[in-house]
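Comment thread on ticket #2218

A.B. wrote:
> Attaching the input chain for the structure job we discussed in standup.
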Amino acid sequence: MFSRITSTAGILCLSLVFFSCTQNAEVQQAQEKDTTSFVSSTEEVEDATIIKVQSEPDTVKGSLKAVAKENIAGVNITVRYHSPAVRKRVIWGGLVAYNQVWVTGAHSATTLELDGPIRLGGKEVPAGKYALFTIPGEKEWTVILNRNWEQHLADEYSEAEDMMRLTVKPEQASHQERLRYAIQPAGADKGTLVIHWDRLRIPISIGQ
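C.D. wrote:
> Ran it. Output below, let me know if you need it in another format.
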């Protein structure tokens, strides 16, 4: 009788150990899936790093948070923005009106941050953090750096706080579903900041 009890107890212990190991393995697999989901939400696009903050798959709905970073001429350049999608809408002259100040993204103001002085579009820009607005036109765009970088859309925009304005000609380009900023180096001390959405590309020279 005693041997039977001992045998039964042994089998029960082994079962508990096996169940515990199985649970631990399942938890580890779930953790690995979560980590993979987060890591896979980072992708390289046109020499700039686009980071989707949430780990959910891109369903094209909503405006994802994103950032473009690059170092040109020893200056770290960072653009943070929300990236809306076309979703079969008319963008230029439709969703985005001509001749009106546009946040050039969605939700909060798009920001451009520099840790040193640099030239943009041939104009000197001091180190600092700025809101980046544009005024789209059919033939020319105005690119604006505004000192009030922390604002919602262009609701609080004031021309009196503009630090710089540039005139840029838009270029025709291949379709880009989501708005994307790219900082493209061209040698050691020059490059281009590109705004690309729908079938338009807005190039802004850096270091020239």
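A.B. wrote:
> Thanks. Noting for the ticket: The first strand starts at residue 42 and ends at 45.
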